[in-house]
Amino acid sequence: MATTDHGPVRPLTAVAWTSNISTCPKDFTLINITENGANANFTRSFPPRYSYYLCYSKAISGGMVVSDIQLITDKDAIPHGYCLIAEYLEPKATVWKKKHICVRVVPVGSVDTAVLDIKLTTKSKMMLQHYTYVGDIHGYVLWCRKGHFTSCTPQAKPRSVSLDIRRLSLELPSTPQPLKPSNPPQVPQGKLSHRRHSLHGTASKPVDGSIQGITALDGVPFSLHPKFNIKPNATNPQLNYQLNNIRIKSLQDIENEYNYTFSVEEFAAKRTRPLVSRSSSAQ
User: How far, in Å, are 110, 118, 206 from residue 264 at the CA level?
Assistant: First the structure.
């Protein structure tokens, strides 16, 4: 990671709205105070029925980082490659505002600079050194700091599959599911409406990879190929060695190995074609 006088600095991996410390996920940091000492609660009504704060995460386990952050209005279309931030709110609570925060989340291996920190100030002439002005939102000013970092994505350990795998059942014990946001980050088409939750409908699959969605393989029973459905014996040691050293790649392993950002194609598409005059073409 990038280093400072106080040690390494990790990039942001997610930004979200949250109601309070109890709804904020355990790997997120809640911003409850601005840099000039004011309360960072974005609720302006009195008495406030619901509260909502900004929070961010630096957990790199998902393999994604926030490369950029922008503010857009209800009349603006979401920029290509960006998505609205998630919401971890109390039941029936919604974030009501004319401006929206959107982020660009990319694989950690596809960029060498990312957003390292975000801060809030009240609307004043206060400037934050080494931070970039993002925009004004609901009485506050949002700042971000970008910089270089070194990827340190945890590597998955290879696993061996024994011949007893055919005895495994599909009815495995249920594991605790991660906290799901009420409005996960999505990229809706067209213009933004006045209410945030109407943008997403019933979609629940995020783009940051932190929450697993339904795949085409869900519910498909697993069975071993008949030619491998044999017991280990001393007559064929090479086959036994191959079966015992099969490595199953995780979803993150596959994404890290085959990920392609199409940055070259995107750069080529943005280039303007040179103009050829009629006189030169006639020659």
Answer: 12, 29, 25
Q: What is the pLDDT along the chain (283 residues), one digit of tens a residue?
A: 444 455 577 899 999 999 999 999 999 999 999 999 999 998 876 666 788 899 999 998 888 999 999 999 988 999 999 999 998 988 877 776 678 999 999 998 898 899 999 999 998 878 899 999 999 998 899 999 999 986 655 555 555 555 455 555 444 555 545 555 666 666 545 554 444 444 444 444 444 444 455 666 777 777 777 766 666 555 666 666 666 777 788 888 888 888 877 888 888 888 776 666 655 555 5
Q: In what order do the strands lie in the sheet with 99-107?
A: 64-73, 99-107, 83-84
Q: Is the pTM of this model over 0.85?
A: no
Query: What distance in Å separates the CA atoms of residue 53 and residue 18, rounded to the nearest whole number?
Result: 5
Among candidates 22, 113, 25, which has minimal Cα distance to 66?
113
- Phi and psi dihedrals of 136, rounded to 5? -95, 140
Q: Is 56 exposed, middle or buried (0-12, 13-18, 19+ CB in 10 A)?
A: buried
State the amino acid at position 273 in one-letter form.
R
Cα 6 to the chain's mean position, in Å? 26
DSSP state of 193: -
